[in-house]
Amino acid sequence: MDKKETIGLNEEFLNSAEDQANKLEKLLLMSYEEAKKDGKIIGKISRYGEVKVEENSEIEFIIDPATYYSESDAPFHKVGDYLVVIDPKDLRKVLIRIKSIIRKDELAAIGLEPPISQIVNSVEPRGLITNTLVKGELVLEMTKDDKNPRPATKSIEPQSPVVDPNPDILIKLLDLPREGITLGALSTPSGLVKNGQIPVRLPLSALYHHMLILGTTGSGKTTLLKNLIASLYNQLEKHPISIIIDLNQDFVQLPIPNNITPIPQEIANSCYKDVRQLKGIISVVPISSDLIESKLDVNMIDINKTFKEIAKKYFYETFGPLINNNKVEFNQFERNKTVILQTNNPFKLIFIPYVINTLETSTDNLSPLLPGLTPLAKDLLKKMREKFKKKHGVYSPIQAIYGALSIFIDKSIYRSFNKNYNKDNYDEKDEPLEQALEYVKPYIINSDNLAIENMTVNNYDFTILDAIGEYVDILLKARSHEETIKALYRRISSLIETQIIDILVPQHKKLIPINEPDWSTIVDLGNDENIPIILDLKWGLDLAGFDALRAITYRTLDKLISWKHKSWAKRIETPNLMVIIDESHQFFQNESKVKEDLDAIRQISAMISKIARLGRARGVGLVFSTHSPSDLNDIILQLTNTKIILRTEKSQLEKISVPKEALEYLPRLQDRMMLVESYAFRMGYVFAQTTTPLTAHYDISANITYY
Question: Concatenated DSSP letters for 1-64?
């Protein structure tokens, strides 16, 4: 065939009707030959209506009865599935998405109804031997010379062949990412595309623009997250370190194999091949002063021995119901003031006891722990702490501030207090200070059995009683308004009630503060061992209340982003991070849903906005998961560029932009099926489905295995 013939219609071509027909025949035959290479021909563009290509246009094609009835689960049976048209002019491949399927009983349409009687069966199968009319939306197109598809805008010829494409053709036309985190297999709202052979992946670059996962209880959010993490660690050689804020101990089970074969098996075999349970985890476990006190031997105070006992208790209570292991031993060591306990049997578990230590934390960096603190109260707190540090070289434990504020809050103590009090001359037996110390004692381990008023804090030059006295002096001189003192007291009181702040252990006539673990050390450990990090907010904190859980979460996020930013400023290379926050509406509430503490919510909004924007530039991807997006802070809806929506009621999606054609399906989606909206996809969104859990998935409290 010469060059002119490959071009299509030209001047010579139009001179002769016979030549025109011959050349069109050749072009059509070529398109059908090309179609056979790309998949199975299932129909052709209709000859009976105009084929109009315009914005949001649709085209019609017909499928003969033999083809239509040959397969029960073919793409042309499902709205939302994909087919390809091969245009004869230039052999261009045009992707179409099915929007409607029209069937008619032609015999009934022309009035040839069978007679109705008790003898003659009124069913007339011959009326169903008719062509099927399918309408499809034009999506993307590409020629053999194109590297990437472009919007479908060129004209399409009647009689063009319609193909059920091979998986590789569909991947190319959809321009699906070839690398990234596996979310599942390509699907439509009614089922899998290509029998689950086409993986849907999210590029890591999109992860750092943050992700929001929505879905009602039981829709598959936790399963999706666990499969996502398993895929990350099994399928990607270079990947971010996962840090999971776990409210329900769902993710501590990642190293435990699943005894139930994941389904659908076709997805497991094609998209999650060779994905197994992880080799271990790092459990960062907040421990309260009550827990330490319950395990501390008062006759031989040894905090390291206590940590080992707590680690064993954690192992038996968390993993005992799931595995047969009645004995575990931990090796203990310390790195950068971080206590680390490790066992390798039956899998690698690194246990890190977590407390918050404020003795080296500036007041500005303390702010995430005190959301809602008024500007005046913050200024007062800063004045108190900075004056103390100037004198002693370190901030005091938070208990001392609490004790001093208690004097001003308790009217009975305050009235008996000498307003001309001079700290330099105060008597240690002064009743108000002694009373303030009584307020503080419940927040110091084993304080009832010891004279803590005489015990210095670590190797510093002050006791808790000294610190209370100095703060009282500062408060008297500051002459702050009563409401300012009350506002500060409320926040400090709420913080100290968490029992995880500035835990003081009596040892050798001193009060020794437990060190706060260093998050950079924890991340480096996770990177070296290639295992995820779980911040376990359930074990030991069931009765702590959400103030404690929020304080730990805000502190963790602040520490991580500060470390990443400082490392970047010093040009120090650090691992990228993926931080998953399950039940995120509990931590980042919507202003309209909270009647009190609006200032706190707004400060948290500002904090998460800063973390998200810095994270995008510093390699920290945030993944928020919730069943209640209407309760979630609006800033998260704005900052997450990828949204994954599992089965969700329409009422929960009012603030989320969802394609109109997809919205109707979302309340009725099957378990683990999802709409994935992201700039990473050329169409803006795709549907995908994941398997049942690839690793163990048990509800320990209910003794239920999910599959």
Answer: --HHHHH---HHHHH-HHHHHHHHHHHHHHHHHHHHHHEEEEEEE-SSS-----TT-EEEEEE-
pLDDT over 50 (residue 703):
no
Residue 13 lies in a domain: no
pLDDT at 112 over 70: no
Residue 445 to residues 135, 293, 539, 670: CA-CA distances in angstroms?
73, 6, 20, 52
Distance CA 242, CA 573 (A): 17
pLDDT band of residue 453 (cuts 50, 70, 90) is: confident
Q: Are residues 689 and 555 in the same domain?
A: yes
pLDDT at 16 over 70: no
Residue that the structure tokens 């398109």 belong to? 31
- Three-point CA angle 278, 355, 577, nearest 5°: 40
Q: What is the pTM of this model?
A: 0.88
Kindly give the residue spans of alpha helices, DSSP state H, lying in 367-421.
375-392, 398-409, 411-416
Domain range enclosing 398: 363-513
Q: Are residues 456 and 309 in the same domain?
A: no
- The sign of the dihedral angle between the CA atoms of 376, 463, 499, 405 is negative
Identify whether residues 413 and 451 lie together within a single domain: yes
Decide if pLDDT at 672 tops 80: yes
One domain, residues 82 and 119: yes
Domain boundary among 354, 379, 403: 354
Give the integer Cα–Cα distance in Å for 595 and 4: 75
Residue 526 lies in a domain: no
Q: Six-digit token pair at 520?
A: 């950079």
Residues 242 and 375 in one domain: no
Q: How confident is the model at residue 704 (pLDDT cuts 50, 70, 90)?
A: very low
Exposed (0-12), middle (13-18) or buried (19+): which is 128, by Cβ within 10 Å?
middle
Asked, for residue 700, whether it belongs to a domain, the answer is yes
Q: What is the DSSP letter of 539?
A: T
Rg (CA), the chain: 33
Please say which residue of 171, 206, 226 terminates a domain: 171
Same-domain status, 111 and 65: yes
- Is the confidence at residue 206, as pLDDT, over 60? yes
Cα–Cα nearest to 211, from 584, 523, 649:
584
Q: Are 693 and 276 in contact (CB under 8 A)?
A: no
pLDDT value at residue 702: 45
Asked if residues 466 and 440 have their Cβ atoms less than 8 Å apart, the reply is: no
Does some domain include residue 530?
no
In whole angstroms, what is the distance from residue 470 CA to residue 423 CA? 7
At 1, the amino acid letter reads M
Is the domain of 252 the same as that of 142? no
Residue 215 CA to residue 624 CA, distance in Å, equals 12
Residue range 451-471: mean pLDDT, rounded: 90
Give the per-residue pLDDT at 569: 92
Check pLDDT > 90 for residue 190: no
What is the pLDDT at residue 526?
96
Are both 347 and 411 inside the same structural domain? no
The residue among 399, 356, 354, 377 whose CA lies nearest residue 603 is 377
CA distance 671 to 690: 9
